[in-house]
Design brief:
The protein contains 9 helices and 7 strands. With 245 residues, it is of the alpha/beta class. The protein has one domain: Rossmann fold (3-Layer(aba) Sandwich), CATH 3.40.50.150. The chain has a 7-stranded mixed β-sheet, sandwiched between helices. The longest helix is centred in the C-terminal third of the chain and has 17 residues. The relative contact order is 0.16.
C-alpha cells in the first residue's frame, strides 16, 4: 500500500517575517509533494535520470546522489542497476536523511547504502563513482565553493563516468528571464499554490538559491575537465545537463 504524501503548505499562512529557506523538519515532511508540484516535469526528469544513470552505472562502482533529499533518485534507480553498485547519499539536513533512510531501507535489501550528513560547501569525498547526481543541489552551494566541489567530484569519478546535473537557471537575456519566471509562477498556480505562498517562498529563497545561466553551468563542467557535455532537458528556467569524464 502506497504511503500518502503530505501536502506542502509550508508557506500557506501569511508571515510577518520571512527567514531564509532551510530543509528543516517542516520541509522534510512535505518535500516529495513540494518538489513534484514546484519543479516542472519532475517525474519525467526522474525517469530520464534513471534512464541515463543505468547506462553508466558499472558493477562494483558507486552511484552518488549529492543532495539526496528523501532518496527518490535512489529508489527509482534501484531496480535498474546491478546489486553490487553501492548507493552513497550526501545531504546537509538530518531530517531529510532520516526520511531518505526510511524510504530506502525497506526496498534496497542487500544493496550497500551509505548516507552521510555533509555540507557540500566544504567539498565532497567521492570515490569510485560511475555516476554522480546533483539534482537541484548545486544552486544551493555558494558560488565561491562550486569550482572546488566540482573538482572533488571529477577526481572521484571513474573514467567514462557521468555527472547528471539538474538546476534552476537564469535565462541568457533579461527579457526571457522575466518571461520564464512569469511562466514558472503560472505553473505553480496551476499546481495549487497561492500568490501568498509563491511570494513568501520566493523571498525565503532569495539569498539561498543562487542560479547560474545554462552556459555558465556548461563552462563550469568543461573547465573542470569533463570531455562531453550536453543538455537532456530544458523547460524555461529549468534544465538537465549530462557530462561524461
Amino acid at each position: 500500500m502506497a504511503t500518502e504524501i503530505a501536502r506542502d503548505e509550508v508557506y500557506r499562512a501569511e508571515r510577518d517575517r520571512i527567514g531564509d529557506f532551510t530543509f528543516d523538519k517542516s520541509v522534510a515532511g512535505v518535500f516529495d509533494d513540494m518538489v513534484t508540484r514546484s519543479v516542472p516535469f519532475y517525474t519525467e526528469i526522474q525517469r530520464m535520470i534513471t534512464e541515463i544513470a543505468r547506462d553508466f552505472a558499472v558493477p562494483g562502482s558507486a552511484v552518488y546522489d549529492l543532495g539526496c533529499s528523501t532518496g527518490t533518485t535512489f529508489a527509482n534507480l534501484h531496480p535498474h542497476v546491478d546489486p553490487s553498485v553501492s548507493f552513497v547519499g550526501f545531504d546537509n539536513a538530518p531530517e531529510m536523511l532520516a526520511k531518505c533512510r526510511g524510504k530506502l531501507e525497506p526496498i534496497l535489501h542487500n544493496r550497500p547504502l551509505d548516507l552521510r550528513c555533509r555540507d557540500l560547501n566544504e567539498g565532497a569525498d567521492v570515490e569510485n563513482a560511475s555516476v554522480v547526481a546533483l539534482i537541484l543541489t548545486l544552486q544551493f552551494i555558494r558560488p565561491l565553493h562550486r569550482n572546488k566541489l566540482m573538482g572533488d567530484i571529477f577526481r572521484g569519478m571513474r573514467e567514462q563516468g557521468c555527472l547528471i546535473l539538474v538546476e534552476k537557471v537564469l535565462a541568457e537575456e533579461s527579457l526571457f528571464n522575466r518571461l520564464f519566471i512569469k511562466y514558472y509562477y503560472d505553473l505553480k498556480r496551476r499546481e495549487g499554490y497561492s500568490d501568498t505562498e509563491i511570494a513568501q517562498k520566493r523571498e525565503a529563497l532569495e539569498n539561498v538559491l543562487i542560479p547560474y545561466k545554462l552556459l555558465e553551468n556548461r563552462k563550469l563542467l568543461m573547465d573542470t575537465g569533463f570531455r562531453e557535455v550536453d543538455v537532456f532537458f530544458k523547460w524555461y528556467n529549468f534544465c538537465g545537463i549530462v557530462a561524461v569524464k
